[in-house]
Amino acid sequence: MMNNALGMIGLAKRAGKVATGEFLCEKAIKNGQSRLIIIAKDISENSKKAICDTCNYYKVPYVSYGTGDELGRFTGTEQRLVVSVNDDNFKSAILSKLERIDE
Fold first, then answer.
1. Of 4, 11, 36, 76, which has the fewest Cβ atoms less than 10 A away?
2. What is the pTM of this model?
3. Exposed (0-12), middle (13-18) or buried (19+): which is 4, by Cβ within 10 Å?
4. Which residues are bridge partners to 38 per DSSP?
5. Which helix (H) or strand (E) holds 6?
6. DSSP classification of residue 33
7. Is 5 exposed, middle or buried (0-12, 13-18, 19+ CB in 10 A)?
8. According to the 3-state scheme, what is the secondary structure of 36-86?
C-alpha cells in the first residue's frame, strides 16, 4: 500500500512538480511554490525542527513519511530527507493515498 504514495511522488517528480533536499524545499516554501512537504522518518531532529518551523510559519502542510532512501529512490536521486510537492493536484492525490494507509 505504501508504494502508491511513493509512486505518486515519483509521478510528480517526472512532471516537474517536486523540489528535493532541504535547501530547495525551504526555498519552495518561502517563495510560495510548495503545497506539501514530505519529511523522511529518518531525518535528524534538528533538520526536522527547522523544516517544520518553516512550514508552520508559512502555513504549508507537512507529513512524515517513508525513509530518506525511499524518497530518494522515487525522486530519482540519492537519499532525500525532504521533498516539496509544488502542485495542488499532486498534493491532494498524495494525501488521499497517505490517508488510506492510516485507515
1. 76
2. 0.94
3. middle
4. 63, 83
5. helix 2-14
6. -
7. buried
8. EEEECCCCCHHHHHHHHHHHHHHCCCEEECCCHHHHHHHCCCCCCCEEEEC
The 8-class DSSP code of residue 18 comes to E
Residues contacting residue 29 through CB under 8 Å, at least 6 positions apart = 37, 54, 55, 58, 60, 84
How many angstroms separate the most distant Cα atoms in the chain?
A: 34
* Strand, coil or helix: 34: coil
- For the record, the C-alpha cell of 98 comes out as 497517505
CA distance 79 to 35: 21
What 3-state class would DSSP assign to 23? helix
Burial of 58 (0-12, 13-18, 19+ CB in 10 A): middle
